[in-house]
Every structure is written in structure tokens, then in C-alpha cells.
């Protein structure tokens, strides 16, 4: 048990170090040597968990889905808002989430790692929107698949602009503004008036999600949870 816990801690240290390097340098410029230095582990320990730089980057990408659980909301559109706000909050504070965004974007990254990260978010967004439609929260003309594409692409654009222009310091506020602009085009008025898009909600949802993840981790190690297929 002690050995297993040590291996989990080592893997976590490697992933955090790799995430910071990938986020700062990009995939091509990142080196195993710098990851080793930041993680404070031996080359043998790193290669035991990750046999190559690509495997290491894929580990970072998979890890972005760990450590956070969003509880279902009575309003599925509020759930959509909370997903976006919490992701913005975590992206600013979690190197794995931040690095995953950089590793997911760009045509060359798609060639190396595939597009499963993007399609996973699209599918999750579409699922929530379909549930919102079933609950009567969407205007009659709304197509959940098309709206999921627009919301996901717009969120990515906001993240890129915020990163480039403000180092993501205003990301929660910009994501809040995004929802305020887009939600009136899909939500029925009775639901729209009850949605909370305040940037301050981001921290609350993120804290709740991390607490729920920690509680779930008592039943199994969340560090070993793979990304959704």
C-alpha cells in the first residue's frame, strides 16, 4: 500500500511538472529534461509511468477530467453555465487544465493527439442541451448539436483571447459575458431570468466540484481515472 501511494504521488508530481512545461513552452519545445528537473524525479521513475514525451502529454490531456465533479442541476442551462464558469476558474489555477487547452488547440496538435478532447467537450455540451430541451428550457428553434458547437467554439475563442490579451486574468468575467450574450438566443424567458452567470459563481462551483471529487475519491483513486471516451 505504501509503495502504491508513493507511485501515485510520483505520477502526480510528474504530470504537474509536465503540465507546467507544456503550458509554458508548448509541446514541441518542451523537453523531458526540464520535466525531470521540475518534478524532482529520476529518468527511470518518469519512464516507468510515461515511456515517451507523447505519452506524457497524453497523460496530461487525460488528467484534465480528474479532480472535479459537477453535480447535476435542476436547470440544465444552469448546469451548462456552471460547466463553463468552473472550467474558466480551474484553467487559471490548475496547470494540468491549462496545459490541456494548449495541447488540444491547433491543427498540428490534432495530428499528434487526435481530436478526442474537443469532441468530448462537444458531446458533453450537447448532452446537457438535449436534457435542457427535454425539460422545456430551450426555444423551439434551437438545435442542441448546433448550439453545442457554437457554445464550445465561442468558449475556446474567449479563452484564447483572454490568454493572449490578459494572461487569463479576466477569464471568468469574459466567460460570464459570453453566456449573457448567447443564452438569450436559446433559453425560454422564464428560464433565462433565473440563470446565474455572475463571475463570482465560478469559484463556488469549482470548490463544490473539487469537494465532490475528493469524496468520490474515497471509493477509488481519482488520479487513476481515465478521460471519457
UniProtKB/TrEMBL annotation:
InterPro entries registered for this protein in UniProt: ArpA-like, DNA-bd_HTH_TetR-type_CS, Homeodomain-like_sf, HTH-type_TetR-like_transc_reg, HTH_TetR, Tet_transcr_reg_TetR-rel_C_sf
HTH tetR-type domain residues: 8-68
Source taxon at top rank: Bacteria
Keyword Protein biosynthesis (UniProt): no
Single GO MF descriptor: transcription cis-regulatory region binding
Keywords per UniProt: DNA-binding, Transcription, Transcription regulation
Residue ranges of DNA binding: 31-50
Name this polypeptide is given: TetR family transcriptional regulator
Gene3D superfamilies: Tetracycline Repressor, domain 2
Amino acid at each position: 500500500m505504501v509503495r502504491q501511494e508513493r507511485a501515485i504521488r510520483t505520477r502526480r508530481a510528474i504530470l504537474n511538472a509536465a503540465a507546467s512545461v507544456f503550458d509554458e513552452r508548448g509541446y514541441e519545445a518542451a523537453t523531458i529534461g526540464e520535466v525531470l528537473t521540475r518534478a524532482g524525479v529520476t529518468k527511470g521513475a518518469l519512464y516507468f509511468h510515461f515511456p515517451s514525451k507523447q505519452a506524457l502529454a497524453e497523460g496530461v490531456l487525460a488528467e484534465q477530467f480528474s479532480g472535479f465533479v459537477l453535480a447535476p442541476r435542476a436547470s440544465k442551462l444552469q448546469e451548462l453555465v456552471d460547466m463553463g464558469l468552473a472550467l474558466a476558474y480551474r484553467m487559471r489555477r490548475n496547470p494540468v487544465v491549462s496545459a490541456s487547452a494548449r495541447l488540444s488547440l491547433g491543427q498540428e496538435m490534432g495530428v499528434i493527439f487526435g481530436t478526442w478532447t474537443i469532441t468530448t467537450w462537444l458531446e458533453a455540451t450537447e448532452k446537457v442541451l438535449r436534457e435542457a430541451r427535454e425539460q422545456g428550457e430551450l426555444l423551439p428553434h434551437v438545435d442542441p448539436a448546433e448550439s453545442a458547437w457554437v457554445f464550445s467554439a465561442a468558449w475556446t475563442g474567449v479563452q484564447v483571447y483572454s490568454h493572449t490579451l490578459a494572461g487569463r486574468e479576466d477569464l471568468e468575467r469574459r466567460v460570464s459575458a459570453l453566456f449573457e450574450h448567447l443564452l438569450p438566443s436559446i433559453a425560454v424567458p422564464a428560464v433565462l431570468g433565473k440563470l446565474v452567470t455572475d463571475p463570482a459563481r465560478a469559484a463556488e462551483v469549482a470548490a463544490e466540484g473539487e469537494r465532490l471529487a475528493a469524496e468520490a475519491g474515497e471509493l477509488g483513486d481519482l488520479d487513476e481515472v481515465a478521460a471519457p471516451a
